[in-house]
Amino acid sequence: MFRTARLADLDDIAALEREHFGDLCYPYVTLRQLFDLHGPDWVVAEIGGRVRGYALVGVGTRRRGWVIAALRSCSAGT
Predict the structure, then answer these.
(1) What pTM, to 2 d.p., does this model score?
(2) Distance between CA atoms of 34 and 50, rounded to whole angstroms?
(3) Within a 10 A sphere around the Cβ of 20, how many other Cβ atoms?
(4) Three-class secondary structure of residue 57 per DSSP
(5) Is the separation of the CB atoms in 39 and 55 below 8 Å?
(6) Rg from Cα positions in the chain
(7) Confidence at residue 66, expressed as pLDDT on a 0 to 100 scale
(8) pLDDT digits (tens, 9 = 90+) for 27-77
């Protein structure tokens, strides 16, 4: 299921960041700032009550945009 992210999801989002991007991941404080600025633009993928992925899409001036996203693979039922 896809839904708008909640503040309570940031721990799971930060874990996905670390898992996918390692030393290049955004620190929690940066994710929190992005949430404060762009909260309604965050979407999470939730499976079995757990956050398995997220996407944040921003569109700036002059038709330029950016995307931050990660998805944790999972087998059926997990």
Answers:
(1) 0.79
(2) 21
(3) 14
(4) strand
(5) no
(6) 13
(7) 67
(8) 999 999 999 988 888 899 998 888 998 888 877 777 777 677 777 765 545
